[in-house]
Amino acid sequence: MPKTLFDKIWDAHVVDTLPDGTALLYIDLHLTHEVTTPQAFDGLRAAGRRIRRPDATLGVIDHNIATDASRYTGIEDPESALQVATLEKNAVEFGMPLIPLLDERQGIVHVIGPELGRSLPGMTIVCGDSHTSTHGAMGALAFGIGTSEVEHVLATQTLLQKPAKNMRVQVDGNLAFGCSGKDIVLAVIGMIGTAGGTGHVIEYAGDAIRALDMAGRMTVCNMTIEGGARAGMVAPDQTTFDYIARTPGAPKGANWDSALAWWKSLPSDQGAVFDKVVTLAANEIAPQVTWGTSPEDVLPITGIIPNPADTEDETRRAQLQRMVDYMGLTPGQRLQDLSVDVVFIGSCTNSRIEDIRAAAAIAKGRRVADHVRAMVVPGSGLVKLQAEKEGLDRILLEAGFEWREPGCSMCLGMNPDKLKPGQRSASTSNRNFEGRQGPGGRTHLLSPAMAAAAALAGHLADVRDYQPQEALS
Amino acid sequence: MRAFTTLTGVAAPMPAANIDTDKIIPARFLKSISRAGFGKHLFANARFNEDGSENPDFVLNQEPYRKAEILIAYENFGCGSSREHAPWALLDFGIRCVIAPDFADIFNNNCFKNGVLPVRLPREVCEQLIEDAKLGGNARITVDLERQVVIRPNGEEHHFPVDALRKHLMLNGLDDIGQTLQHAAQIDDYEAKQKASQPWLVQA
Fold it and tell me: Mean pLDDT score of chain A, rounded to an integer?
């Protein structure tokens, strides 16, 4: 029977099947960070258990850490400091490899996995973090888990799982001028809704997906969870193999050849059946911006704020009204007329070198509007070094952007980088939920190029009016 | 994990879809290294004003919902972040069951690991239960996991689906790591085969 990419990886990892159909699924890579692990290690300790495969486990500190120079003098917030120290202590006690806080490889867990060559095609990858879906861009089955499941994987290197259904999102044709992976995934979520993928694993296919670089594919898979699917995947191809070959963790010698043979066998078979198929035409996608407090409330940048009164369903109408009020909007207002206070370019969604290049290409030779605070937060120390090698930091600093240290930063409001109540941000992150970037903060999600354009304009702006005057080398 | 068998209690109505885990517990409260004590931050942004005082309009600040043991909501409850702090906060507040038309996958899993029962019922039943819940303390709702039914105050019963393995673990309050370790020999075999066929997956 023809199999999908998901079926193949799933089948290769079933250790045992329980009578009710639940599978005991083997986990090849377990990434950990400081926020969702302390209680799991407590559980291990209480039961006298150890980490079964320390070599298949890797920890990094990303959520709590400051992204300014203060990181070099210790963490100010005592609770954050304790959480970080707890991960460091647990790593020693349980023999878990941990990237030190001030190491050049430190960064956001979903940036460093692929970058270090630890996230590879055909693997099962988990992390106590919903954006683990990012690693599916490598052609892996990667999904977020809760802390009890973290403990389960630490102790057994397996998870109890029911198979997901297969969903294919097909993006045909070529992406239009000014658009990126971020615009694709926002358009997909706008189409299927935030629960459109619940119970499914999404495989992204079509010319527009094939044409994306690995960073673009990671952005698409990253936000798959915002469409309700725990995992998003892209079948591995030459783009994937070339990317892996440049990473320090790439299999070497004969291992490379046998790995490559396995990876090439992974793409979905001709005739494989998907439970759900959604098709989009790439050239119909315009640069996207969210206007509400759910990622599904998204519009092309040329759009206007909807009027809740036009909606018949009472619950939905109340929800729209709540969003309009919270976001400080007026129905009928043009998105491009919304002034922004803060621009945030970063997060596990968009902080890779390609994202920073895209922002710098728009910013080059221009100036951030006077009333805007614009931050660029590279996803890892290695991304930061690469950007500096290319001179992107200079371009951004000269344009008036802050050039910061790697971390989760303003994506989630648990470290010093937060919005103040009422502030409006243009953000390349993944969630525009109420209070996500800080209590009372108002978030508009968009691509790195669109965020850069908003920083220059001082309001949400159409990146197609801000194309680079000269190409970056 | 505390076993869940039957529960009869006050239900709090939260008639909204997409109640995300950032709403249930904002990230700034995730810094604790313990599982306990998150209840005081449950729904913090909606429940408390900026000065820390209670927002009297929020349902869990009203009688009898301060003692609610059940929440009734609409679609896609628990979407967003994977934080297990969300069910920990619900449980610590005293809520042991959430009833909604559907749940986000990770939140759903996390609930079962903590003795919080997510009950899926059709939207129209949830709408009826919201109306029941609005009656407050005089309209207690019963959730019977063994029989897989929710019983409205008027005696009407609604059957809900639940996975057999999860039901078993939940009824008996069992830890699933112990259950998995009964398969240790198969895990050993799997690892030996993988080490031979995919040696690049084993780090030196």
Answer: 97
Mean pLDDT for the stretch of residues A393-406: 98
Position A471 pLDDT exceeds 50 = no
Domain check: are A310 and A225 in the same one? no
ipTM score: 0.95
Give me the mean pLDDT over the A308-316 stretch. 92
Q: Where are the alpha helices (DSSP H) in chain B?
A: 21-24, 44-47, 85-93, 105-112, 123-134, 164-172, 176-181, 184-197
Judge whether A117 is closer than 8 Å to chain B, CB to CB: no
For residue A213, what is the domain's CATH number? 3.30.499.10
| pLDDT grade for A467, boundaries at 50, 70 and 90 | confident
Tell me if A46 is assigned to some domain.
Answer: yes
CA distances from residue A83 to A1, A79, A212, B30, B69 in whole angstroms, order as listed: 48, 6, 37, 9, 30
d(CA B202, CA B191): 10
* Domain segments of chain B as ranges: 6-176
Nearest of A40, A39, A83, A32 to residue A60 by alpha carbon: A32
- Work out the minimum CA distance from B47 to partner chain A, whole angstroms: 12
Print the domain residue range for A313.
287-465
First to last CA, chain B: 37
Q: Which CATH number fits domain B6-176: 3.40.50.720, 3.40.395.10, 2.30.30.100, 3.20.19.10?
A: 3.20.19.10
* CA-based nearest distance B167→chain A, Å: 11
On the question of a cis peptide bond just before residue A306, with omega within 30 degrees of 0, the verdict is no
Based on the domain organization, do A133 and A269 belong to the same domain? yes
The torsion defined by the Cα of A448, B27, B4 and A37, in degrees rounded to 10, comes to: 90
Q: Which of B16, B17, B106 is opposite residue A144, by nearest beta carbon? A: B106
In chain A, what is the straight-line distance between the N-terminal and C-terminal CA atoms, in Å? 48
